[in-house]
Amino acid sequence: MFLFLADAVLAFHLAFILFVCLGALLALKWRWVPWLQLPAAAWGVFVEGSGTICPLTGIENYFRVRAGEAAYEGDCIGHYLVATIYPDGLTRHIQLALGAIVVIVNLSVYIWLVRKRRA
């Protein structure tokens, strides 16, 4: 059961990361999305910018340990994605770049959306 919960937290965490990065695109279809996506994006930028670890990582590790597996060091992105995307590891520079990309993508979509709705 604990392994299932750890995997469920991981799935939610990865979905949350996608929502943070690309959720503004959903606002093109649904007007209520910015009320959820903007705070989520702000949280994602804060986590990347401050270098802190998202609490979802701690929850996942807690369930993994309870299931008899080893917890991992660092954050979710570093553990699951960085080895594939950034073989040399997650650096502070990369974290700041990821945060900047989130801001640029979301800001671009929202600026476009506001202009479209005003026209």
How would you characterize this protein structure?
This protein has five helices and no strands. It is mainly alpha-helical and 119 residues long. The mean pLDDT is 84. This is DUF2784 domain-containing protein. It comes from Dyella monticola. Pfam families: DUF2784. The chain crosses the membrane at residues 94-113.
Secondary-structure blueprint:
Layout: H1 2-22, H2 33-50, H3 55-66, H4 76-85, H5 92-118
Number of strands: 0
Give a short account of the largest sheet: none
> Which percent range fits the helix content?
over 70%
Count of runs of 4 or more consecutive helical residues: 5
Which structural class should the secondary elements be placed in? mainly alpha
Strand percent estimate: under 5%
Unreliable sequence segments? none
The overall average pLDDT, rounded, is 84
Provide a brief overview of the structure:
This protein has about 120 residues and is mainly alpha-helical.
